[in-house]
Design goal:
Blueprint: E1 3-8, E2 11-15, H1 22-39, E3 43-48, E4 52-57, H2 64-76, E5 90-96, H3 105-112, H4 116-124, E6 127-133, E7 140-143, E8 158-161, E9 165-169, E10 172-175, E11 180-182, E12 185-189, E13 210-216, H5 218-223
Parallel strand pairs: 5-13
Antiparallel strand pairs: 1-2, 2-4, 3-4, 6-7, 6-13, 7-10, 8-11, 9-10, 9-12
Helix pairs in contact: 1-2
Length: 231
């Protein structure tokens, strides 16, 4: 049963669970389209997260009590047709895991007891779900990593993480779409631009998509536009 709480006069949070897992993420993904389908242009913004959805609405056309009633009715409607194919989309991301870009690989190996090759294999052999987009435009939170490479965030974050850096934090992995401060453990870098300015979400990937990392060598990284000397 969804729990709905007010954030402010024209924003609500719809809670669909309290943990990060595939079932809750699928429910969030489905609920987004149920709400959009039922409420249409009453909604001004809708932002999914791991187990909740932030919903902003047009206060000139409805009010909090009406919108809560409408959301509950939408979520109670069992319409299998109200969905999308975002969870069927698989996005392949090339990653160079070389030591000149894998800034924290030595620490990851030390903490896990694994070789760099083993870390790369575990990181790149599984498919990740996009659970949320946030922190900065295009920053996708992906999960979950293999238990053997679960890593805490750095105790002292970097002031600047190079664009395209691929990192680990807790049981998640992510790609820095731009150069920003950050505390994730960096194990590689992609040459791809993760920000798509022509996309409604600004991101190359969207919530519900699947991401598969594909290891590439240094030459391929450079040929694809990768930058090694950003700093």
């Amino acid at each position: 049963m969804a729990r709905i709480e007010a954030v402010n006069e024209q924003t609500l949070i719809v809670y669909l669970g309290d943990k990060i897992d595939e079932a809750v993420a699928a429910e969030v993904n489905h609920a987004i389209f149920q709400i959009q389908h039922a409420l249409g242009n009453l909604i001004t913004d809708i932002i999914p997260s791991y187990h909740s959805i932030l919903v902003s609405f047009d206060l000139s056309r409805t009010d909090r009590f009406d919108i809560i009633k409408r959301i509950k009715q939408a979520l109670a409607t069992h319409t299998e047709a109200v969905s999308n194919d975002s969870d069927k989309v698989i996005v392949e991301i090339p990653v160079y895991y070389g030591e000149d870009v894998a800034l924290d690989m030595a620490d990851v190996c030390s903490k896990t007891g694994l070789t760099a090759d083993a870390v790369v294999k575990l990181h790149s052999e599984r498919e990740y779900r996009v659970y949320a987009i946030g922190f900065s435009p295009g920053f996708a939170y992906l999960g979950s990593v293999d238990d053997a490479i679960v890593m805490p965030r750095k105790s002292t974050p970097r002031l600047k993480v190079p664009t395209g850096s691929v990192g680990l934090a807790d049981n998640q992995t992510a790609i820095y779409p731009s150069s920003t401060p950050g505390g994730w453990q960096i194990i590689g870098r992609t040459p791809l631009n993760m920000i798509d300015w022509d996309s409604e979400t600004l991101a190359r990937v969207n919530v519900g998509n699947r991401v598969k990392f594909h290891p590439i060598d240094r030459d391929a990284f450079i040929q694809l536009g990768g930058v090694l000397d950003e700093f």
